[in-house]
Design goal:
This protein is mainly α. The chain has 13 helices and no strands.
Length: about 280
């Protein structure tokens, strides 16, 4: 509901402070993910993280190869193809924001890439739970699928939270394991491009782990942990609203059909492949 309200607002009115909203959404998302860590058991987090790191590494390599191939086939120009592919493969807007400066991408390339990923990201948040229920996916299956196939952490957590508590634990943890691949990918691109741009490390993932440690081992922390976990859920709702307001008519016009088609085709391939492997039992939690 928050995301839909944000999209309707963004499509109806001109955003008076779009840049501030984007920056606020990024910070609020990271803070909310850390707060959600206070509602998770460390043993479950570590179990999901170990499985997720293997699955995400294979999935990211697959998505990068397919995405760049589709971009070349469609003739997506400049850095937009690699940015869209990286955003789909790893962590949506966070990956694009980390890799863009290394590629020396201009404002138009960044806007096109972010717009493509955010639009598809919003569609995923609204449709994935419906598909999961229709296919009778278990909570662990859905959490794993959401983590492997949805772009941004915000929508993974939102969709998984809608599906159930177990899906939330699996989805959040595997997604954060996927987000860690921002670092090696950015370093690899910097090496190839001989870029000295500053690398933004996803430090909030470390704090998420520390929050899970505190919830699991600190005596008498259950009361405070519960409050922080609920605050994280509220913060995530606000984040989704802010993300929705960033989808405007100008964004839709600016993206264009080639980058949007590249992002859509890659997303469909990743989502269907991961769903098949999960339902067939090749990928499990």
């Amino acid at each position: 509901m928050a995301l839909t309200a944000g999209i309707l607002l963004g499509l109806t009115f001109a955003h008076p402070c779009a840049k501030f909203a984007r920056e606020s959404a990024r910070f609020l998302l990271q803070a909310s993910v850390v707060a959600l860590g206070f509602g998770m058991n460390l043993h479950e987090v570590l179990k999901a993280g170990r499985s997720g790191f293997l699955y995400t590494s294979v999935g990211i390599a697959f998505a990068l190869l397919v995405g760049l191939g589709i971009g070349k086939l469609l003739g997506v120009r400049g850095n937009a193809s690699l940015l869209i592919t990286s955003g789909t493969a790893i962590c949506g807007g966070s990956a694009i924001a980390a890799i863009g400066p290394i590629l020396r991408a201009d404002e138009e390339e960044m806007a096109v890439s972010l717009g493509t990923v955010f639009i598809l990201n919003s569609v995923a948040l609204l449709t994935f739970p419906l598909i999961g229920w229709a296919l009778h996916l278990g909570q662990e299956q859905f959490g794993l699928w959401a983590a492997l196939a949805i772009h941004d952490t915000s929508s993974v957590v939102g969709a998984a939270a809608k599906y159930g508590a177990v899906a939330l634990v699996v989805g959040t943890t595997v997604k954060l394991a996927r987000a860690l691949w921002i670092v090696p990918l950015a370093l690899g691109i910097a090496g190839v491009k001989h870029s000295k741009a500053e690398l933004a490390l996803p430090w909030f993932i470390l704090f998420f782990g520390l929050a899970a440690v505190a919830n699991s081992y600190v005596p008498g922390a259950s009361g405070a942990s519960g409050m922080l976990y609920r605050a994280g859920r509220l913060g995530l709702t606000a984040t989704l609203f802010l993300i929705g307001t960033g989808i405007s008519r100008e964004t839709l016009k600016q993206v264009g059909w080639r980058p949007m088609l590249q992002g859509l085709l890659l997303w469909i391939v990743v989502a269907l492949t991961s769903l098949y492997l999960i339902r067939a039992g090749f990928i499990s939690f």
